[in-house]
Write a structure and sequence with these properties.
The complex is a heterodimer of chains A (277) and B (172). With 277 residues, chain A is an alpha+beta fold. Chain A has 2 domains: 10-26 and 37-113; 116-269, Thrombin, subunit H. In chain A, strand 6 (182-186) and strand 7 form a beta hairpin. In chain A, the strands form 2 sheets. In chain A, strands 1-2-5-4-3-12 form a 6-stranded antiparallel barrel. Chain A is globular. The termini of chain A are far apart. Chain A has 6 helices and 12 strands. Chain B has 172 residues and is an all-alpha fold. Chain B contains 7 helices and no strands. The chains are: A alpha+beta (277), B mainly alpha (172). The interface between A and B is large, with 49 and 44 residues.
Chain lengths: 277, 172
């Protein structure tokens, strides 16, 4: 018997490592699917984090809200949130109006939209790679579910909700995640491709043929809505660089519009493109 | 080991995960460079030995894995090894002086960064977010030295107070 198996401490170490390698290998073929245990722990930690954020924010705002600035700060916050809601509404409406022939029909469809926007605060980043996901402080309690679209304050696409979504917290997959994919088009030339993250804070526009000449730097990208997840016309980012390759497709780098370092409030659109339009 | 110690260490590891997660809301740099969860693992491994260090490392790592969308175990495995190695070394050499504490923590954190990055790149084929992580051993070790100094100081003052308020027993 090898010497390290004679020692109790080594047996414990190998047992712990073995158990985790089993966990790891069980998940690898499934990719992003999370086990019940993982979901349960996430639910517990994320909801506690949500509460903790609420307490910290509350304590921090006590002085500025009630003593120093009285009502001004509160009002400012409310107005800011209103601006975010209105920006999202405006974007959805623009898209809606382009598709509807009669304006009366569009007005009729407006009413439920206001209720379909949920504002949320970012309460934590992904410890492994912060360009992959963020956690927000709204969840099932506000009617959130996977695949809902998430936008920033100015209506730029941030990503979509993915599992796990717990009672008071949800995970947002960012456009900068390598596993993210959305159908997008260039705004001027209508060139359609797939947007995916590079894991370093930027994105790639994929499947644009090397022979294509209509694509140029600085061009804006918007969603097409073909994927059935994202609304059509949501601004995503700008093409920052185009590289020629030896392969079939160009390598196109995209700088997303949303500012990762200033990501505080996000808007979740509860209506899916299929339901709404 | 007393139940009180066990509960205290569990509370500390959960608290460290939360504080680290809260840091992400304020500063990306601090979030990447201050690894409080590992500091707690190393601190307890140093005092309680390699079995406790490995177990606490596994727990802390798995807690971090559950708030990440990555693979369950990608934080757990490096932390288990670091907990074990630091516990094993601490029983053989004296790491109580501040310069040695700094080197000890820095070495352990370098090991963790290498293991974690290796696992991410070679096993999980997942890109690393940036180069900021290379500052983690240095900055986290500095934080560790400050925390160890604060604990020692608090401990000394607490013992002194206990001595003052200790009732004198008369011998008849």
């Amino acid at each position: 018997m090898p010497f390290f198996l004679k020692k109790k401490s080594f047996i414990v170490l190998f047992s712990l490592l073995g158990l985790q390698f089993i966990f790891l290998s069980l998940q690898l073929p499934q990719g992003g699917h999370q086990s019940f245990l993982e979901k349960w722990i996430f639910g517990f930690l994320a909801n506690t984090q949500s509460g903790l954020t609420y307490i910290i924010e509350g304590a921090g705002n006590l002085w500025s809200d009630y003593i120093a600035l009285h009502q001004a700060r509160k009002e400012n916050k409310e107005l800011k949130e209103k601006i975010v809601t209105l920006t999202q509404e405006n974007l959805l409406l623009q898209d809606k109006l382009t598709k509807k022939e009669k304006s009366s029909q569009a007005i009729q469809n407006l009413a439920p939209l206001n209720k379909s926007i949920v504002l949320a605060q970012v309460i934590g980043l992904d410890p492994a790679n912060y360009f992959r996901t963020v956690v927000i402080n709204r969840g099932q309690a506000q009617g959130l579910a996977p695949n809902m679209v998430v936008l920033d304050e100015k209506g730029h696409l941030i990503g979509r909700l993915i599992d796990p979504v717990s009672w008071q917290a949800a995970t947002v997959q960012l456009v900068t995640d390598t596993n993210f994919a959305a159908s997008v088009r260039t705004k001027k030339k209508n060139l359609v491709g797939i947007l995916s993250g590079d894991g370093h804070g930027r994105c790639f526009l994929k499947y644009i043929l090397e022979t294509e000449t209509d694509v140029e730097e600085g061009e804006e990208l918007v969603t097409t809505g073909y994927d059935g997840v994202f609304f059509a016309g949501l601004p995503v980012g700008k093409i920052s660089a185009i590289y020629a390759t030896q392969g079939l497709f160009k390598s196109i780098l995209v700088q997303p519009y949303f500012n990762f370092h200033n990501l505080e409030i996000v808007a979740v659109i509860k209506t899916s493109p299929k339901e709404s339009f | 080991m007393r139940v009180k110690d066990l509960l205290r260490s569990l509370l500390m590891i959960v608290l460290a995960v939360f504080v680290n997660w809260q840091l992400s809301r304020f500063s990306l740099f601090l979030f990447q460079t201050i690894n409080l969860t590992s500091l707690v693992v190393i601190y307890y491994a140093q005092r309680k030995g390699e079995i406790f260090g490995a177990s606490l490392g596994a727990l802390g790592g798995l807690l971090q894995d559950s708030i990440s969308t990555g693979i369950f175990g990608s934080f757990g495995i490096p932390k288990t090894i670091v907990g074990f190695v630091t516990g094993y070394i601490a029983r053989r050499i004296d790491v109580r002086s501040y310069p040695v504490t700094f080197i000890f923590y820095a070495g352990a954190l370098v090991l963790e960064v290498i293991l974690w990055s290796g696992l991410q790149i070679f096993v999980l084929s997942s890109p690393l977010p940036g180069r900021t992580i290379i500052y983690q051993p240095l900055l986290s070790s500095l934080v560790a030295v400050v925390i160890v100094w604060a604990i020692k100081r608090w401990d000394t003052q607490w013992k002194r107070r206990l001595r003052i308020f200790k009732p004198k027993v008369d011998n008849f």
